[in-house]
Amino acid sequence: MSNNTRETARHTDVMIVGAGLSGVGAAVHLQKNCPNRDYMIIERRAAIGGTWDLFKYPGIRSDSDMHTLGYNFKPWKAEKAIADGPAIWDYVNETADEHGIRERVQFNHKLVTAEWSTQTASWLLTVEVGGEARYFTCHFLLMCAGYYNYDAGHQPEFDGRDDFQGRWVHPQFWPEDLDYQGKKVIVIGSGATAMTLVPNMANDAEKVTMVQRSPTYVVSRPSVDKVANFLRKVLPSSWAYGLVRFRNTLWQQIIYKQTRSNPDRVAQNLLGEVEKAVGDVVDVKKHFTPTYNPWDQRLCLVPDDDLFTALRSGKADVVTDTIAHVDADGLVTGSGEHIDADIIVSATGIELLNLGGAEFTVDGKPVNFADEWTYKGVMCSNIPNMVQTFGYINASWTLRADLTAEWVCRVLNHMEEFGYDQATPRIPELLAKTMEKRFWIHDFSAGYMQRMMPKLPRQGTQMPWVNPQNYRVDKKMFRESAVSDGALIFTSSNNDSEQLKQVS
After folding, report:
1. 32 pLDDT exceeds 60?
2. Predicted structure pTM score
3. For position 341, which CATH number holds?
4. Which of 42, 47, 309, 420 is 20 to 30 A (C-alpha) from 254?
């Protein structure tokens, strides 16, 4: 790209990519903690909300409680702690309007390429707007674009799919005109989406059958947190929110630690609760007993026993088997059973997409992220002034999004105080050659993650070249550890060579 393009491009100090839960939260943290920094948000869609604006399928909801999925600066005040999609959308949009963020958003702007120039200490961003290219520059790039492909969901090939005479639907692109009243519905999948769809569609459909290749661990929780609602009545909302948030994060960490140290006992407890909920209507061993340990994949949350209620009523059923083929009237399982359907919903997952699918270069050289190391799970070795927000796979997303935004503000303020214009993670050559390489998300077998891991930066076994996925560890790493740690190298245009000696 020519120097003239950089000179004529629209400039902002910090560019946030994405106006969903993470991007709006990051903007609030920037306004509070870095008031001297100008920022802008580019959003590829026409609305604020991200995931909670995109997904429209019946019953769309969080699979985390809102006292931890909510922002640390904005108490969740609604009665239901396990909230539906529209309520979460309202929460994100209300936050944006309370803090004047909407006017900072450039809608229908899709990031295509990001080109770093050491000479100018800036990113040149090529952004697609209505089929045309527009250009922006920024000193710091904060990627809050989520982790999956908005244009396509994961869709395995099913033999005979084209023969099906009914309606084939993927939840990511739910048709507004889909009428399932009195219809026979098959939902393919065993994840959170499938377990949300089944009880919600069963209210109106004749029958909903969940067809899963293998079971998933399921845990039921009340959608209403009575303790949280009581505390909010007797305490200031911020106090009540803080107490419940502390309780819930502590409980999440305790449970997760037990799944690592005593997985058999946790599995026994989980399956025991399912048996109590479904009685003898469903074979729990066959349909709800996975071959892996709890939290080797994400647990599925069922609010108020709704899935189990649907199964007990006979309006829903579960089949655990492979799919041999699809025919005109439904599908045939590997064991030869035919399941009739007017509608088949392929809740087969999402496709992960690194950094929104944008292409990155540093000083003209294309970046292959798989060749680099992750720094604290938020930056990438040898890539200056770029942070990616990625939440937890074993807890609420926003817990880590908040910590990431707070840390970015610490970095920006450090750079301003000492006159630096670049912050680049640099791993010593010897360490890079000798340290064990692990996938960016370690010890998590979910297919949607495994499909993407080879394309992401690696993590090691030594701080800060790790992605802890542990809220307690992360709080210390992001809030207490020194910003200048010898691995994140700060430089200024006038002092590059002297600062880089630190990594030799």
Report:
1. yes
2. 0.91
3. 3.50.50.60
4. 309
